[in-house]
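Reading group handout, session on sequence-to-structure problems. Before we discuss, look at one worked example. The prompt was deliberately terse, the way you'd type it at a terminal:

> structure Glycosyltransferase involved in cell wall bisynthesis

The input record follows.
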Amino acid sequence: MSRENQHNITNVVFLGENGFPKGLAAIQRMTLMAKALLVEGCKTTVICRKGVGEQDHVVSLCTKGKYEGIDYLYTSKNVFKPKGFLDRNIQKLKGLFDEYGYLKYLKKQGEIDVAIVSNMSAIHMLRYCFYARWLNFPVVLNFVEMASSMQHRSSFSKRINDSLFDRWIIKFFDAALPISNQLLDHYNRVVPTKPSLKLPILCDFEKFNIQSNRQESYFLYCGSIAYKDVIDFVLQAYNSINQKEKTKLYMIISGGSKDESQFLQKQMNEGFENQSVRLFSNIPYEELVELYINAIALLIPLRPTLQDASRFPHKIGEYLASGNPMITTNVGEIKNYFEDGETALIANTYKTDAFAEKMQYILQHPEEAKVIGSNGKKLGLNEFDYRTQGGRLKTFLEEVLMIS
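And the output record:
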């Protein structure tokens, strides 16, 4: 075999995330990386070590199969999360044992050239690095958060884990795929001798090619219950604009329990007349896309913190794909891609009055807002559609394979 063929990537394995193909930003990013490599002729395989779906929900998914061209396997042999404590832990152990066995099988069959790993647990990341050394394949870190800066991860055990992750664990990987300049600079400081490639947010723009059937005027915010301070910020900004009786605020909130969602809806109902704020949670992806498409503007205020400067939210790509204008703040990756009044509406400061001013602009200048949304979509297609990133990603992985 020639040296060129030895370093040609044909098989890429994804590790560390569970719940494929259904899930939030982490699963979506992994899926889109895999699809980007499929476009370049690679075989991609996702390995989940345990099920996370609820048995009360209908899930038409086998434990092994193919999804949108991507091979996948649940090594626990169960796509659901068992309800009993004993059953859950038995599944975890079985998943761990069989995960290693399947990696060993793939290596023996010549079906693993490199692995891309997404996880925030120091123990699991060390485990994957050990597997990679033992079985002799390079392992690349999907680096999307500065773990130690995440305010909601405040317990003592998580602070220890996250500090170890950001300062030490990342050194064990052969390379990294930071999502932002902040994370790229951090990785290059901590691990200056290893390669890295900034891989921005990814989106499948084709899934947003549907017609709008807007029946009422609304702003849309999509976020996690963990960002309660941002939810409050959006509510305050919305409360200060005019025409609330004509334009509602829709909020898609993920990650909360049923009780938390009910409490948040009660708070919204008590704070706003005529139920002008509407809460959504746990909705199908197709409905989510429709809500994006029919909004007059999509909201994502980023805070002037290390956490928000480091991350690049997945939903920004989906916001752009809708063709509707995005309203945000001038933090982190925003300044690297967007121009206020051209491809997005950008508040210079993280203050509710500055953010509300941009929301008011949408109401007062609907035609200009449409142009901004269209320009944002064009930018997104050029920069963030997964098809535009596959070649870069494959070339980088081949370079990692060559030096490992």
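Points for discussion. First: The first strand starts at residue 11 and ends at 15. Second: Residues 205-383 form a domain with the Rossmann fold fold (CATH 3.40.50.2000).
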